[in-house]
Design a protein that fits this description.
Blueprint (H helix, E strand, L loop, with lengths): L1 E5 L17 H6 L5 E5 L1 H6 L6 E6 L2 E6 L7 H16 L3 E6 L11 E5 L4 E5 L2 H9 L5 E3 L6 H22 L4 H10 L1 H7 L1 H12 L6 H17 L4 H12 L8 H15 L6 H13 L3 H4 L22
Parallel strand pairs: 1-2, 1-5, 3-6, 5-8
Antiparallel strand pairs: 3-4, 6-7
Helix pairs in contact: 3-4, 5-9, 6-8, 7-8, 7-10, 8-9, 10-11, 11-12
The chain binds iron/sulfur cluster (SF4).
């Protein structure tokens, strides 16, 4: 799995002051499972070290100005950003992680200044904006937002789901493969967006007799949109209740009560999601409930990332 990452987050000394912003979650934890493709448009455009830059709104256009002397440096950054984008286009990416607040890499966090020096709000940096336009469905986040356990869990889940879909597509699937893929993602999709989950089910049922190519295209759009939605405790709780219902004949009254208590404690942010999920997984194994064991919702990414062990990963 390949993820593009701002080079300074990987520890490269490419910032304007020749420093870096090494992010250990990215390199040490995600790096166990992903290969990184680094980019740094400013290093290409101006070299390192370099004067810092800012984005300045000039009538309706955005310009890049040097903080040192106010020179207009727009053209070089646009040109080198386009080159970096072509470099990314050669890679089968499953996500991009940007450095926050940067005039090049910030995702809605790059400050925009007026000519009089006042700050007028925040926007995408020059390179981030090009990436967003080129890859509207690709998972994208900033390292700053990934410090929030809820956003981190959602992003990692999205990246791994995106990767599974890309692998399915690369394997030249049949309709049957797509149905199986959809079935395995049932509860993950429901936790994201119930309506899109149903729409995807209708696409797979193909009542309008589309060609498989057209159908796969429609499914891809819906699937990638659904996995970009953030999970909520409310939706996740509904899914957990549904999963618990699979064992209503097998469990004793007190086992049912314990499981429902765990689900309530999760919904009340007393215990993390991993607790009721582990119990459900245990029962699924004990009673050989294959349908559940095949659900990606139970293990949407490698468990060693342990993101569902944090009570704050639910909102
Ligand atoms: S934020 Fe982007 S442009 Fe700035 S140093 Fe990091 S990678 Fe380079």
């Amino acid at each position: 799995m390949k993820i593009a990452v701002s080079a300074c987050l990987l520890g490269a000394k490419v910032r304007f002051d020749a420093g870096h912003k090494h992010d250990h979650f990215i390199t040490d934890e995600l790096g166990e499972f992903a290969e990184f493709v680094s980019f740094c448009p400013e290093h290409l455009a101006y070299g390192t070290p370099r004067p810092s830059i800012r984005l300045v709104k000039n009538e309706e256009t955005l310009q890049v100005h040097s903080n040192k002397n106010g020179n207009d440096l727009t053209e070089a950054l646009i040109q080198k950003s386009a080159e970096e984008l072509s470099h990314l286009e050669e890679e089968p990416l499953c996500g991009i992680i940007f450095k926050s607040k940067s005039p090049s890499c910030g995702l809605k966090s790059a400050k925009i200044y007026l000519e009089n020096g006042f700050c007028e709000g925040k926007e995408d940096g020059v390179f981030a904006s090009m990436c967003r336009e080129r890859y509207p469905l690709l998972p994208m986040e900033e390292e700053g937002r990934l410090e929030d356990p809820w956003l981190r869990e959602n992003f990692v889940m999205q990246v791994f789901a995106y990767d599974r879909f890309e692998k399915l597509k690369a394997a030249i699937p049949t309709l049957n493969d797509l149905v199986q893929f959809h079935t395995a993602h049932k509860f993950l999709l429901q936790a994201k967006d119930e309506q899109l989950y149903r729409e995807l089910g209708n696409i797979v049922a193909n009542r309008s007799g589309l060609s498989f190519e057209a159908l796969l295209g429609q499914y891809e759009l819906g699937f990638k949109t659904a996995i970009s939605r953030k999970s909520s405790i409310k939706h996740t709780r509904n899914v957990l209740d549904h999963l618990a219902g699979f064992f209503k004949k097998e469990l004793t009254k007190s086992e049912k009560k314990s499981l429902h208590d765990q689900i309530s404690d999760y919904a009340n942010k007393i215990i993390p999601l991993i607790v009721p999920l582990s119990t459900i997984q245990l029962y699924a194994r004990k009673y050989d409930t294959k349908y559940l064991l095949e659900q990606t919702f139970l293990e949407p990414y490698p468990k060693t990332l342990a993101l569902r062990s944090n009570v704050k990963s639910g909102k």
